[in-house]
Specification:
six-stranded parallel β-sheet; eight-stranded mixed β-sheet; Rossmann fold; mainly beta; 24 strands
Length: about 220
């Protein structure tokens, strides 16, 4: 059965997620992307690949049978991802999971709901990806690593074995993380960092090797 899908908000993550939806549909029609929703009136009527922004979150009431993919999040607002997604007021059972067909996922890996896995991602044995996560293209997550709920992992990130990234964290593109590392809740790791030491919760870290720069704003 083809399922209706609404994407939120109209940003880079949602537009790139739409490309994964369209790639899935080329193999087999699975999704009917009816539109985006966004509370920014200036975005209403805009479109990506022929799919328009229908209006604000109130539109969801018009499509009670539609699945939702909520993918807000950037380095400025990632700590608020939970509250932004909660503001939709929808049941967890309505959230979709989108995995690009080029991704390689181990049969024993687990992927949560409202999570999008973008092109050429590799997730190996025993890895766990939480709910409401974004994994951007060309990232590898090796065996027995865990990505907590509401986390964003950038493109071209290399996560070695048994890494534990706590919830609501943001890992910048091009980052490399050594095996057995722990990254605390709400941490941000800057672009291109090499993480060889644990990172405390609620901190911003960057560099080679990555070091704490400051506390996050929460």
């Amino acid at each position: 059965m083809v399922k209706k899908l609404i994407l939120f908000p109209f940003g880079g993550n949602a537009r790139e997620s739409l490309l994964s939806v369209l790639a899935l549909n080329k193999l087999k029609k699975q999704w009917d992307p009816v539109g985006f929703v966004d509370d920014d009136r200036l975005k209403w009527g805009k479109e990506c690949c022929g799919i328009k922004v229908l209006g604000d979150k109130g539109v969801l009431k018009k499509y009670p049978d539609a699945w939702i993919l909520a993918v807000p999040g950037n380095p400025d607002n990632y700590p608020e991802r939970k509250s932004i997604i909660d503001s939709l007021g929808v049941e967890n059972s309505r959230f979709a999971t989108i995995i690009h067909p080029s991704a390689v996922i181990s049969p024993d890996a687990r992927i949560g709901y409202d999570t999008t896995i973008m092109p050429n991602v590799v997730i190996t044995c025993g890895a766990r990806i939480g709910n409401h996560c974004i994994i951007l293209p060309n990232t590898s997550i090796l065996h027995d690593s865990k990505i907590g709920d509401y986390s964003c992992v950038g493109s071209n990130v290399s996560i070695s074995a048994r890494v534990n990234i706590a919830s609501a964290s943001y890992i910048g593109s091009g980052t490399k993380i050594k095996g057995d590392i722990r990254i605390g809740e709400g941490a941000l790791v800057g672009l291109g960092s090499n993480v060889i030491f644990d990172i405390e919760k609620g901190t911003v870290a960057a560099g080679n090797p990555a070091k704490t720069i400051r506390k996050t704003k929460k």
